[in-house]
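Quick one, tokens below. Sequence please?
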């Protein structure tokens, strides 16, 4: 049976005006696939990179990498999901900005009854990211309770989850954000210290907070505007985790600069290397579900937009007007 779904697509890279709603036919799932009907869809900064062309894709492109809903049909060989299951995912290929879709089942997980669809849609990509950053890419000397870490854009979607999770792990998180109100929000969610990096020199403040030593890890998703100074926030053998480009991509640099700054380590991480199998995806999702169910991490949804208002949603995210998570409602 073929059904019709609204799907937000772009036919050329560019600004939010490129986002259009097309009607697409959705058929039956093939081997290893499911058909899911969305109840809520997560908005992520990666959607902006794909729309703008920073991350190239073939056209036309259906956008969106996160969603939650009900499984309507299951293809051959899929054993972890059945028709009627509540489910949520962070997954490639993009295409979650729609009513329903057929997609690979590998990254789709059953959503525990205690977690509602909106929370599920908001938390999968951002929560799994916070999880692997804090738990699956440790610095060379390990990450232990009491260690200082610096987390940029701490009041954002990934940021507020990371603040809470870091606190639960006993880490002393210093968060940066672009306004005093955002800094206060990050502190409410577990950041021990915050720095408004629009008005303060964050490297100088980090040195002050850490008694001149620096932090063990910097988590930097802002990119161009923060990368260089972030290296100056690290202690010897510290780890620079670059994982985004909200202000633009990081410029090429010579590895030689890392020696005199303290034999630093640099890595560029992406969630999609961490969820390349069903087992790894489920193990990470189980940790995320557990920390959310325990109440240690609350998923804060500060913006809700109708799917048809997707252009406004993108404009808000890019203009730094959002805090916490943003969802689209079909
Ligand atoms: N590699 C991965 O696995 C992975 C996975 C998920 C997300 N990410 C990255 O993590 C970051 C956070 O993602 P998110 O979806 O949760 O977004 P978000 O943090 O809610 O939004 C991005 C934030 O970046 C800050 N920012 C700083 N300079 C900016 C600029 N010039 N333009 C726009 N924003 C700027 C803003 O906060 P302030 O106003 O406080 O500065 C803004 O709110 C993004 O860079 C995303 O690409 C990476």
């Amino acid at each position: 049976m073929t059904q019709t779904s609204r799907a937000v697509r772009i036919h050329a890279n560019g600004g939010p005006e490129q986002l259009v709603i097309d009607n697409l036919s959705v058929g039956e799932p093939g081997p290893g696939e499911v058909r899911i009907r969305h109840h809520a869809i997560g908005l992520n900064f990666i959607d902006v990179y794909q729309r703008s062309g920073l991350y190239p894709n073939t056209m036309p492109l259906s956008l969106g990498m996160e969603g939650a809903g009900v499984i309507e049909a299951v293809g051959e060989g899929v054993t972890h999901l059945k028709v009627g299951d509540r489910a949520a995912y962070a997954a490639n290929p993009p295409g979650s900005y729609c009513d329903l879709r057929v997609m690979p089942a590998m990254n789709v997980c059953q959503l525990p009854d205690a977690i509602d669809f909106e929370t599920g849609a908001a938390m999968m990509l951002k929560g799994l990211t916070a999880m692997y950053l804090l738990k699956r890419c440790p610095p060379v000397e390990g990450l232990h309770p009491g260690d200082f870490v610096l987390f940029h854009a701490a009041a954002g979607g990934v940021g507020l989850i990371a603040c809470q999770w870091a606190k639960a792990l006993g880490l002393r998180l210093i968060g940066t954000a672009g306004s005093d109100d955002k800094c206060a929000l990050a502190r409410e969610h577990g950041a021990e210290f915050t720095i408004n990096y629009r008005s303060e020199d964050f490297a100088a403040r980090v040195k002050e907070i850490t008694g001149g030593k620096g932090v063990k890890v910097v988590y930097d998703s802002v990119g161009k505007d923060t990368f260089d100074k972030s290296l100056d926030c690290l202690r010897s053998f510290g780890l620079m985790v670059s994982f985004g480009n909200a202000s633009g991509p990081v410029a090429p640099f010579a590895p030689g600069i890392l020696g005199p700054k303290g034999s630093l380590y640099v890595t560029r991480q992406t969630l999609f290397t961490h969820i390349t199998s069903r087992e790894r995806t489920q193990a990470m999702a189980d940790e995320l579900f557990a920390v959310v169910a325990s109440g240690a991490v609350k998923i804060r949804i500060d913006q809700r937009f109708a799917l048809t208002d997707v252009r406004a949603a993108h404009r808000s995210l890019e203009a730094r007007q959002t805090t916490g998570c943003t969802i689209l409602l079909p």
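The longest helix spans residues 117-135. The chain has two domains: 3-125+280-329, 138-268.
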